Amino acid sequence: MNKKIAVIKGDGIGPEVVTEAMKVLDKTAEKFGHSFEYDQLLMGGCSIDANGVPLTDETIEKAKAADAVLMGSIGGNTATSPWYKLPADKRPEAGLLKLRKSLNLFANLRPALLYGELKDACPLKAEIAERGFDMMIMRELTGGLYFGARKTEEVDGIVTATDTLTYNENEIRRIAVRAFDIAMKRRKKVTSVDKANVLDSSRLWRKIVEEVAKDYPEVSYEHMLVDNCAMQLVKDPAQFDVVLTENMFGDILSDEASMITGSIGMLASASLNDTKFGLYEPSGGSAPDIAGQNKANPIATILSAAMLLRYSFDMDKEADAVEAAVAKVLKDGYRTGDIMSEGMKLVSCSEMGDVIAANI
Ligand code: NAD
């Protein structure tokens, strides 16, 4: 298969980790008889330096013309970089928000997976870490409280702030369909998280999820209140497969889920629209403290590339091969600095990319 991938290396460690992910994609293409063509685009601080703005219309159009986007991370040191002296809408992050919006990326996927070899990094009790976990947090990204009308006003002399949480049935249905589709590629279980004992928007959420579930008889599903879910994530994370939830709950729960894996350098993410198109990026930032030192962990970006293969290209075998190669190098004891422990082999960012590519 021939596919075109828009590549946004970005700032800080972005270029280093994306280069390693491309190395692994190229090896995968060679092994499985595909050809990947890359269109390298600027976004974030590097685009401010080159074009005066964090995102150009040309970058948006070229990203849209590709089959998927692979991204590093953008931004610099927020205390010292001149990019942060600019008005908010001219800073690196404004480019990312605009790109997500322009591409209509409404479904955010964040896997939280605890590798057996890294269970010492898990902050949970040893007996919970021992059981391991492998879940996908699926968060609605373009609706709900963060996009509703808001105002701050004086009511009877008292300053009062209001935010509104709105979802319509179409917004709920499209993300629910995505979650059940993804569950079909995994262990076929969906936990839909809401606050239906209080919120109307959650009651509608439940109703629509139940309608969608009827089309997926092989997938078991349950509803869980968000407060209970926050507790269950630390008590028994192994019970979860796909966790489906609205924007704000997903914001909080996905950070909690990533925290219990213990390592930001390992966490992939994807944002999808209603076609096969998606933007794939590591969950962490541009790590200016270690940028340019060949020290960053490229695994989050390599696993994001695996998600790209699985969800945008339907290349499940190829994605399995990348994920298996990552598991193998961890088993063989290769570690970048962030996940290093005694007795393991310390490698650089590029060496980690090399050993993973060699294991495809
Ligand atoms: P960060 O995630 O960049 O760094 C936090 C800590 O994690 C640092 O110690 C860093 O060295 C470490 N770390 C992160 N990724 C790593 C990796 N792959 N390998 C090894 N260590 C890694 O968060 P921050 O310091 O709060 O933010 C730095 C910049 O990144 C800011 O400009 C912020 O706005 C930006 N940011 C961008 C994105 C994005 O592009 N989507 C996301 C978050 C933050």
Features:
Isopropylmalate Dehydrogenase; two-stranded antiparallel ribbon; binds nicotinamide-adenine-dinucleotide; alpha/beta; 10-stranded mixed sheet; single chain; 360 residues
Summarize the structure.
By secondary structure, the chain is an alpha/beta fold.
Can you offer a commentary on this structure?
The protein is α/β, with parallel strands linked by helices. The protein has two domains: 1-106 and 274-360, Isopropylmalate Dehydrogenase (3-Layer(aba) Sandwich); 123-260, Isopropylmalate Dehydrogenase. It is built from twelve helices and 14 strands. The protein has a ten-stranded mixed sheet with strand order 2-1-3-12-11-4-5-10-8-9, sandwiched between helices. The chain has a two-stranded antiparallel sheet with strand order 6-7. It has a two-stranded parallel sheet with strand order 13-14. Helix 1 (14-32) crosses helix 10 (299-312). The longest helix is centred in the first third of the chain and has 19 residues, at 14-32. It is globular and about 60 Å long. The two termini are 18 Å apart. The mean pLDDT is 95. The chain binds nicotinamide-adenine-dinucleotide.
